[in-house]
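Before a colleague's protein record goes any further, I have to sign it off. Thanks in advance; the entry in question is below:
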Amino acid sequence: MLSIKIGKKVTEETSRDIEVAVIGFVDIKSQIDKLNLKLKEHKDILIKKSETILEDSEASTVTLSVGEDNVNVKFDWDIKVNDAIKLKKIVGERFEDLVSTKTVFTPGAKLKTMVLDDDGLRECLSVKAKAPAFKIVK
């Protein structure tokens, strides 16, 4: 029997295809979670070995191979400017060449609610439906 909960209201109906989909989703998601844990173990081992291999190298990428199986491990950095004034003092007039500046306008929660009811606002904003989110509830 399929239980449908919206808010606090629960209804039941028979829908074999939905029941199979719910059971299948929970089963497959559980398998994926277990595989992701195992994958993380392998990644940790590969990262350690790759760090050791690249220790004295200026390279940031290494490929590890066993027969036909190849894994490329690439190290990268997320670099953000925390103190633009101090950075500008250090690099001087090169600052404009080394740093890009951008202005980002992000709608607040209230505007997000308003735009769903006001077509006039939609002329100023891009509104796209997100893909539905799924989670297993215990």
About this structure: The mean pLDDT is 93. The chain has two domains: 1-75, 78-125. Residues 1-75 form one domain.
